[in-house]
């Protein structure tokens, strides 16, 4: 086959390698400066502590079991809110994509949704839902669900007409069309929404815990900050960041499994 | 035998369907079994609409489509379509793409594999079974799309500018391959193209469509003997036919362009009201 595909592929490959190298370099320099900065005194120890100290502190706290109740509370809120956002947001996105008038009506509201200062409603939610996990779940869900809805709806709308035409030509039933064409074709878009949705749920939970809670990782970060426990604060932050990265990685894995995209 | 009788298609525009656009107006054509017919015409004259109607993807406003005297209404297993755009599914491998229609129709796994392999062989993609379409060039993707259609064993294949996005060289190579596949399968092919050379290289007959509303302005027999190789393309007969088709097309293309410009203006005023 004299179509010159292979040349393009190799050129692409060497470029990805270069990009990867730069990405790795950025990560390494970040890690090194967090480690070396505080050690050399470029940054004050009350502001930042070396990464290795954070890790040590975190492992110590994890080992002692002191973190366990906070982890349980925060994870329950984050994963609970995210799960709720997925089971409500994805179907809502499908409906929005299907029902044109509904989309037209809701579009302006969805557009300004994230301009609303969400956490300002926290006192109101507490008076309705009481203290505890309920208002945190509500805020995190509310913060997360709309990004899932909009990404699902716009993702489904972006599916190339050629895919659906091919499906119709092969005489697929409505169900087959949804299951074997629309759903897999929308995976990359929907997963963009899911990844963002998780981060938003996490932000919603941590920020709510900052404001008003008696436990949880967000509360712990703010408590440690107020009590000048810098290592304790960074240990909790490190845990939150690790959680965000771990879930993102898992979601990306699931996505590529589902989409079977070129595994180079 | 494929028969198109007085096919017309009118689209309603806007939410209330008050304004309409006549895409097809009284199309008549009879295509013999195993024939290769190309359709050329200005952009927007209704070529894709014609194929959608024949393929049963959209209903005609008037007229009918018959295959061997048997009416086509709705997607029909006797007809397979190949589209211009990347219509191969990027979430499936090459062989899964080719076997897709069989899978949807409940064909057993063993038989699917066998038939898909056969078609992949036929389009010259052996060795790429497990590749992802995202790794393949445009030309190879179109081979996958052709194999995916062929595997359903259609009597009639409708190809809507299938090589429109390919460069000239790839187009020539894959055009020759298509002729080989056509010979080997004995299928009837209807082929839309913008490329007059390609139409002359490939077809038995070439239908020239008028600017919207789409009608057949003329249908030209192509008597240039087969097989047509690269040398054929420099013969006088070849160039005469190209010239003749170009003359037929030119005035329609101009009309088509004026329409397109006119339509932008109308669309603007509609939006204002
Ligand atoms: N679904 C549709 N709704 C309304 N108008 C359409 C639709 N599809 C095509 N048209 C119009 O019908 C005419 C013919 O379109 P098409 O068949 O795509 O032309 P071609 O394939 O020859 O370029 C064009 O003016 C186009 O804008
Ligand atoms: Mg077209």
Number of helices, where a helix is a run of at least 4 consecutive DSSP H or I residues of chain A: 10
CATH class wording of the largest domain in chain B? Alpha Beta
Could you tell me the radius of gyration of chain A in angstroms?
A: 23 Å
What portion of residues of chain B is helical?
25-40%
Low-confidence residue ranges of chain B: 265-273
Please trace the helix and strand order of chain A, writing H or E for each element: HHHHHHHHHH
Return the domain count of chain A.
Answer: 2
What gross morphology of chain A would you assign? Answer: globular
Shape of chain B: globular
Considering residues with a beta carbon less than 8 A from a beta carbon on another chain, report the largest interface and each chain's count: A-B, 30 and 38 residues
Question: How is this fold's topology laid out?
Answer:
The complex is a heterodimer of chains A (264) and B (273).
Chain A: H1 5-40, H2 51-64, H3 68-98, H4 100-112, H5 122-129, H6 133-157, H7 161-169, H8 174-211, H9 217-226, H10 230-259
Chain B: E1 2-13, E2 19-31, E3 36-40, H1 47-54, E4 62-67, E5 70-71, E6 79-82, H2 94-104, H3 109-122, H4 138-150, E7 156-160, H5 168-185, E8 188-192, H6 196-202, E9 205-209, E10 216-221, H7 236-272
Parallel strand pairs in B: 3-8, 3-9, 6-7, 7-8
Antiparallel strand pairs in B: 1-2, 1-4, 4-5, 9-10
Bound molecules: adenosine-5'-diphosphate and magnesium ion (MG).
Adenosine-5'-diphosphate binds next to strand 1, strand 2 and helix 1 of chain B.
Give an account of the 3D structure.
The complex is a heterodimer of chains A (264) and B (273). By secondary structure, chain A is mainly α. Chain A has 2 domains: 1-48; 49-263, Orthogonal Bundle (MetI-like fold), CATH 1.10.3720.10. In chain A, 81% of the residues lie in helices and 0% in strands. Chain A has 10 helices and no strands. The radius of gyration of chain A is 23 Å and the shape is globular. The two termini of chain A are 21 Å apart. Chain B is of the alpha/beta class. Chain B folds into 2 domains: 1-78 and 155-163 and 186-238, P-loop containing nucleotide triphosphate hydrolases (Rossmann fold, 3-Layer(aba) Sandwich), CATH 3.40.50; 82-153, no CATH class. Chain B has helices at 47-54, 94-104, 109-122, 138-150, 168-185, 196-202, 236-272; strands at residues 2-13, 19-31, 36-40, 62-67, 70-71, 79-82, 156-160, 188-192, 205-209, 216-221. In chain B, strands 6-7-8-3-9-10 form a 6-stranded mixed beta sheet, with helices on both faces. Chain B has a 4-stranded antiparallel beta sheet with strand order 2-1-4-5, with helices on one face. In chain B, helix 5 links the parallel strand 7 and strand 8 (188-192). In chain B, helix 2 (94-104) runs parallel beside helix 4. Chain B is globular and about 50 Å long. The termini of chain B are far apart. Residues 265-273 of chain B have low confidence and may be disordered. Chain A binds chain B through residues 1-5, 8-9, 160-163, 165-166, 168-172, 176, 180-181, 184-185, 187, 258-263, and chain B through 55, 57, 74-77, 79-81, 83-87, 89-93, 100-101, 104-105, 124, 132, 134-137, 139-140, 145, 148-149, 152, 169-170, 173. Magnesium ion (MG) binds next to helix 1 of chain B.
């Amino acid at each position: 086959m004299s179509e010159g595909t292979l040349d393009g592929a190799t050129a692409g490959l060497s470029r990805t390698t270069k990009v990867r190298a730069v990405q790795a370099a950025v990560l390494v320099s970040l890690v090194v400066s967090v480690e070396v900065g505080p050690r050399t005194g470029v940054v004050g120890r009350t502001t930042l502590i070396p990464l290795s100290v954070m890790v040590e502190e975190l492992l110590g706290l994890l080992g002692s079991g002191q973190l366990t109740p906070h982890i349980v509370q925060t994870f329950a809120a984050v994963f609970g809110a995210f799960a709720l956002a997925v089971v409500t947001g994805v179907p809502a996105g499908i409906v929005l994509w299907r029902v044109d008038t509904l989309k037209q009506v809701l579009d302006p509201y969805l557009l300004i949704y994230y301009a609303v200062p969400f956490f300002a409603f926290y006192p109101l939610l507490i008076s309705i839902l009481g203290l505890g996990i309920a208002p945190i779940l509500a805020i995190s869900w509310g913060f997360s669900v709309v990004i899932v809805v909009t990404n699902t709806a716009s993702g489904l709308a972006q599916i190339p007409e050629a895919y659906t035409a091919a499906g119709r030509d092969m005489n697929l039933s409505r169900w087959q069309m949804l299951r074997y064409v629309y759903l897999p074709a929308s995976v990359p878009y929907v997963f963009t929404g899911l990844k963002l949705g998780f981060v938003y749920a996490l932000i919603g939970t941590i920020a709510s815990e900052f404001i008003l809670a008696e436990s949880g990782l967000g509360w712990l970060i703010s408590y440690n900050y107020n009590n000048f426990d810098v290592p304790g604060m960074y240990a909790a932050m490190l845990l939150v960041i690790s959680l965000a990265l771990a879930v993102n990685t898992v979601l990306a894995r699931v996505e590529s499994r589902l989409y079977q995209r070129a595994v180079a | 035998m494929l028969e198109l009788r007085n096919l017309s298609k009118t689209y309603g525009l806007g939410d209330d369907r008050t304004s309409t656009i006549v895409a097809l107006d009284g199309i008549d054509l009879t295509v013999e079994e195993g024939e290769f017919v190309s359709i050329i015409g200005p952009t927007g004259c209704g070529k894709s609409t014609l194929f959608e109607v024949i393929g049963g993807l959209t209903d005609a406003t008037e007229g009918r489509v018959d295959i061997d005297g048997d009416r086509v209404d709705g997607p029909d297993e006797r007809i397979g379509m190949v589209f211009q755009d990347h219509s191969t599914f990027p979430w499936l491998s090459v062989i899964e793409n080719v076997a897709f229609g069989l899978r949807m129709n409940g064909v057993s796994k063993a038989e699917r594999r066998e038939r898909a392999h056969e078609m992949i062989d036929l389009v010259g993609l052996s060795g790429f079974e497990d590749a992802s379409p995202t790794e393949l060039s445009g030309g190879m993707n179109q081979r996958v799309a052709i194999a995916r259609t062929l595997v359903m064993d259609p009597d009639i294949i409708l190809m809507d500018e299938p090589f429109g996005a390919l460069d000239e060289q790839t187009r020539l190579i894959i055009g020759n391959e298509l002729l080989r596949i056509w010979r080997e399968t004995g299928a009837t092919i209807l082929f839309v193209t913008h490329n007059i050379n390609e139409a002359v290289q490939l077809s038995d007959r070439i239908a020239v469509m008028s600017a919207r509303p789409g009608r057949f302005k003329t249908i030209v027999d192509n008597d240039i003997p087969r097989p047509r190789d690269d040398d054929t393309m420099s013969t006088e007969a070849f160039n005469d036919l190209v010239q003749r088709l170009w003359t037929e097309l030119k005035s329609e293309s101009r009309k088509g362009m004026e329409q397109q410009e006119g339509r932008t203006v109308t669309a603007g005023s509609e939006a204002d009201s």
